[in-house]
Design brief:
single chain, 10 strands, mainly beta
């Protein structure tokens, strides 16, 4: 059974940082491209970043480039999203997803507010 469990969300002030984690199980994590999505209130879910199987290729939506870093540890079956210089517009529920297959985590709330 595929499971993706996000953690690390919370409330942070503008300019602050958070690191999201996604623990994967039930499939061969190292064989899958992985991604982070987010959904802000009243908006459609959007792709934030994705990463190749070995981590050598990454891509980001323009609004987070140079602020967010996606990474993975295949030995730990874990995906990460390091988020720096957070802005109020980054407030959303963040989801971990297998990039090509349709497996989703339950999401973790990130709120950026003073």
């Amino acid at each position: 059974q595929v499971r993706l469990v996000e953690s690390g969300g919370g409330l942070v002030q503008p300019g602050g940082s958070l690191r999201l984690s996604c623990a994967a199980s039930g499939f061969t994590f190292s064989s899958y491209y992985m991604s982070w999505y987010r959904q802000a209130p009243g908006k459609e879910r959007e792709l934030v970043a994705f990463i190749s199987t070995a981590g050598g290729h990454t891509n980001y939506v323009d609004s987070v480039k140079d602020r967010f870093t996606i990474s993975r540890d295949n030995a730990k079956n874990t995906l990460y999203l390091q988020m720096n210089s957070l802005k109020p517009e980054d407030t959303a529920v963040y989801y971990c997803k297998t990039y090509y297959a349709d497996y989703w985590g339950q999401g973790t709330q990130v709120t950026v507010s003073s």
